[in-house]
Amino acid sequence: MPRDSRPTRAAIIDAAYKLFRRKGYTRVSMDEIAAAAGVTKKALYYHYTSKDQLLATVLETQHVLALAAFQSFGDKLVGSSETIVDRLFHDLAAWADTPRWAGSGFTRLVIELADQRGHPARTIARRHKAMLEEHLAALFARAGVRAAKERAREIWLLSEGAISLMLVHGDRRYAEAAAAASKRLLGV
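Above: the chain sequence. Below: its structure as tokens.
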């Protein structure tokens, strides 16, 4: 009976995710990933034929986990549009306070791969961000916000900007500024 490769693949994905998140895509070698996963380089290439394929798998795995986390977080986002915005940006600021916070891994990797338009990681990140925006639109629609899709897009843009500026400046007050701007957009 063949050996179950799922634990090995999971160890590789976990190690690659941690390294990509900490150092970026281009600064991580397959040798480092193999060492961090506790596998040989040959075993790594047996499971993933390229670093690009591994990155796509890592992002696909993280997409599923992040979407589930955002949806369960979305379950807490109930009530008025003002309550949704307050909670969204409060939790964003709290996330930025976690040790070794590095912003959104999807955004960081896409920026790093900006010159590679056809890279599978860009496709996965685009889909991921679109699904999160759609989820926010559904929350706003449930709260009775007019033009919920448009407001969700604008507020998602403020959220991404706040993440970037908190990362650049180390100042969580950007989440507060984004929340205030969001409320003005919503007329609350």
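The CA atoms of residues 107 and 125 lie 7 Å apart.
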